[in-house]
Structures are given as structure tokens and as C-alpha cells.
Amino acid sequence: MPGGPRQGQGQYPPGMGQGPGQGAAPVQPTMEESYIENIFRLNRGKMVTVYTTFENNKEWNAKVFRGQIEAAGRDHLVLSEPTGRRYLIPLLYLDYATFEGEIAYEYPYR
User: Fold this and answer.
1) Which of 11, 31, 52, 72 suits a disulfide with 40, CB 3.0-4.6 Å?
2) Domains, the chain, with CATH or none
């Protein structure tokens, strides 16, 4: 078709087809990469202080959470306080985190 794709048809990067069976399958990494959720996973069980910002919140714009890392997913962090209270924190709101000791950063299989 001269002049490029018709309206409603998008351009796809290499390896991404326009429908089932088209294009190559996405490449899966063979090793974990140093994304923030993986760093939290490596430090499971450690105490952490997490600083967050919630824009357009009239009650509190910034909040600090302190607890033990229980789990970390692609977009969230689960912390628990010694009292038993647990927090599910969307990483979207994460500004930064501090640890009292060393941070495990190297993956065991490297």
C-alpha cells in the first residue's frame, strides 16, 4: 500500500506481530536483571524504610513505611511491621528505600 499503513493499522517493532501466529515470540531473559522488585526479593527478610509520594492526596502527600520485606512483585512491595500489620505498597509511589545494613545485590548464580 503506497504511503504507509492505513488508518487504524499500527507499526510494530521487530518480533511483535499484529496477531496470533505472526512475528517471533518475545525473548525471555535467561537471568534476572537488576530491577527494583528483584533487589527487594534478594533482600527478603531485611528491615527497610520505604519513602513514598502520593500526589494530589489532601491528607498526606508523602508517607514513610518501615518494616520487614515479605515479598516483592513486579509492581508492588509487601512489608510487615513487628506488630503484625502488613502493607501492600504499589511501586508506582516509591521514591526510594533505605536499609540499615548491606544490600544484597548480586544474584547467587553469577
Assistant:
1) 72
2) 36-99 (2.30.30.100)
Cell of 11: 507499526
Whole-angstrom Cα distance, residue 65 to residue 79? 8
3-state secondary structure of 88: strand
Question: 99 in helix, strand or coil?
Answer: strand
Q: What is the pLDDT along the chain (110 residues), one digit of tens a residue?
A: 455 444 444 444 444 444 455 555 655 555 556 789 999 999 999 999 999 999 888 888 899 999 999 999 999 999 999 999 999 999 999 999 999 999 998 866 55
- As a whole number of Å, the CA-based R_g of the chain is 20
Tell me which amino acid residue 40 is. F
Number of H helices, E strands in the chain: 1, 5
Q: CB-based burial of residue 69 (10 Å sphere; 0-12 exposed, 13-18 middle, 19+ buried)?
A: buried
